[in-house]
Every structure is written in C-alpha cells, then in structure tokens.
C-alpha cells in the first residue's frame, strides 16, 4: 500500500501544482500588465482590449498578424503617437480580449472592430495599418465601412493564393496546426509553457527548448517566435508577450484562427476591391513583388513600395520605413481636409 501511495501521490500532486502555478501566474500577469489599456464592450458579453496613445487625427488603427496582439505594434505605435492619435487592440481570442464568439474571418473581425471603435468613442476617419493576416482584416473593413476610412497601409499582407482552398497543397499544414495547437492547450493549462518561456527569458534556453517541444506545434511555434520575432521588439514588453503565450487561451485562439484560414481565403478572394481610398502596400525585398493584377484586386488606388532589407516582419526589420509610410499617409489624407476648411 505504501509503495502504491508513493507512486500515486506525485502523479496527483505534480499536475495540481502545475495548475496552481499557472492559475496564480495568470492572475498576477493580468494585474501587472493591463494598466496601459482598457476593455471595451462589443456586445454578447465580449470585451476587446485596446491601447490608445497620441492625439489629433486622422486616428491610426493597427491590426496585427494572425496570432499576434497589440504588442507587436508597440514600438511603431509609440512613434506614430507623436504626430497623431493611435489605437492598437487585441482581437477576440488573443491577448487580453474575450474568447471568440464567431468564426475568425475578416468580415466577422471587422464587425467586432467597428463595434469596438464606436463603443470606445474613437472617431473616424481612420488610417488602417495591417500586417499579414491583419492586412486582410483592414482591407475588409475598408470595403465594409468605406466612409470611415481615409487610407490603408498594408505591411506584407497575407497572400490568399498561397493558402487553401486556392492552394490545396497547404491544407495538411492547417490540419496539423489545428491538431497540435489543440494538444498544446492542456500543456499550457498545467504551467509547462509558463515554465519554458520563463526559463528562456532567463537564458536557460536548452531546458526551455526541451520543455517547449513537449507541447508539439504550439510549443515549437512559441519557441520559434521567441527566437526570431521577439528579439526585435523592445525588451520592456517581453514579459507581457511571455504572459500571453503562457496562457492556454492563446492556443485556443490560435486554433480558431488557423481553422478559419480556408474561409478567410474564400471570403477575401471574392471581396470587392477598395474603391477611391489610397492604399500603400509594403512588400519585403526578400519576397516576389505583387503583380499589377494582385494590386488591382486590392483596390483602384494602390501603390507598392519594396522594403529592401526586410523579410515578412517589415515593421520589425525596417520600422522607420513603416513609420515614415504612415506619416506620409497622414499628411496626404489631411491635406484635402485642410484645403476644404480653408
């Protein structure tokens, strides 16, 4: 009996300790890291977390990549807030915002964003800035609510032709992502990712790598982003990113967004172009430039600029280019308003 107890007791205690470690850590994170923004009600009990900085107009709204949050724009937002009002937020299912209540397609996301902006009292017109998947979201917003949009800046927007159903060869990648991110949820729930990410931030990279890989694709996804993306962001936000990626909700949200990629591609493949709104597309120098046909599908007033020194994360590789592009857009769309008032 004593041997059985000696075996069973650790099996019960270790998961309980991990769950408590995760729960208390998540509560502490929420208290520490949410003072920079506020939650805005959008209906159905949902709240979106938004960070506002600067003053003036037009307001610049930032939309992050598929599983990124407002933090991905923090260094850009701080600079842009020096010359106009800005807002960056966490979409449903990500960061500090509520869980998703609808499929994660650009149309649904745009409707939620519209409700958030109205409830928050952030007045149009807006300049929309979107990276990757966020580029599809701001494109959709501009077609659904064109009267509210003064300009659009797309930072290496997601290319629909590279994903299913237009490219069925990548369906297996999506299926694998859904399956393995689902497996990562219980691993995070018992504090494994919290421990792994904490160790990595404290330079215990070998041990954190082993622990992170135990979470399957979710763990490998986090470790890859920590080493490739986060190192380019300001150090003061690293602990907040670690807090986000330690939560099981992150992997639930990731699964929801990855699952909706085929529906997203179908929606945007059939979406009308943006009419009579200036659009600037920043394309990485390490990628093939968008063709004239692709640009015409985006809108009828589109200009492409090549970010010669960049890969996919242009706003991390060449932040000054992105800031200058936004500044130029603010100046261009403000000029007609100034002329009219004169």
Give me the side-by-side strand order of the main sheet: 1-2-4-3-5-6-7-8
Order of H and E elements: HEEEHEHEHEHHHHHHHEHEHH
Largest sheet: 8 strands, mixed
Average pLDDT, rounded to a whole number, is 89
Principal-axes shape call:
globular
**Helix proportion:** 40-55%
Give a structural overview.
With 342 residues, this protein is of the alpha/beta class. It has two domains: 37-158 and 273-342, Rossmann fold; 170-262, no CATH class. The protein contains 14 helices and eight strands. An eight-stranded mixed β-sheet has the order 1-2-4-3-5-6-7-8, sandwiched between helices. Helix 2 (74-80) runs parallel beside helix 14 and helix 6 packs antiparallel against helix 7. The longest helix has 32 residues, at 2-33. 44% of the residues are buried. Mean pLDDT is 89; it is low at 214-218 and 338-342.
